[in-house]
Specification:
two-stranded antiparallel sheet; alpha+beta; Nucleoside Triphosphate Pyrophosphohydrolase; 7-stranded mixed β-sheet; single chain; 156 residues
Length: 156
């Protein structure tokens, strides 16, 4: 087991939906239940990392695209783990496959992505949520005690 696997919090995962010029950034997954499907980039949070830092890292590792996480557009909870989805603002970079977790990375027209059979239902739902991000949870500044530098509050 490598250092990354030792540092992975397997019960916390994140994703982001990056939109640019009417297109969404998708990666064709190479393994597991999503193999062959075009999905939004994401992955597990590492210990000592915030969900926002994880989204930035995962996007860059998988696509070479730099993003800035904005509104929370979705949260999935179950008995094993949680999954947080952000609207991910495109900052820079050329979409490039990592040739490991994905075989291609594409900017696809949003309308096309919502109609394609190789885009799974969860990805389609997250794209729809991103299109309505003005209704998402925004980061809220607050004066807190306890000294936790990495805490944040998202709210309406």
């Amino acid at each position: 087991m490598n250092n990354t696997e030792n540092n992975t919090n397997w019960s916390q995962s994140v994703t982001g939906v990056a939109l640019k010029d009417g297109k969404v950034l998708l990666a064709r997954h190479t393994y597991g239940g999503g193999a062959g499907k075009l999905i939004v980039p994401g992955g597990y949070v590492q210990f000592g990392e915030t969900p926002q830092e994880a989204v930035k890292r995962e996007f860059f590792e998988e696509t070479k695209v730099v993003v800035e996480p904005k509104q929370v557009i979705g949260i999935r909870f179950n008995t094993r783990d949680w999954y947080v989805a952000f609207l991910a603002e495109y900052v820079s970079g050329e979409a490039t496959s990592d040739n490991d977790e994905n075989s291609e990375v594409v900017w696809m027209d949003v309308k096309e992505a919502l109609q394609r059979d190789d885009v799974p239902g969860l990805t389609k739902k997250l794209i729809e949520c991103a299109l309505n991000a003005d209704k998402g949870l925004d980061i809220k500044e607050y004066d807190g005690s306890g000294g936790e530098k990495k805490s944040c509050l998202y709210g309406i």
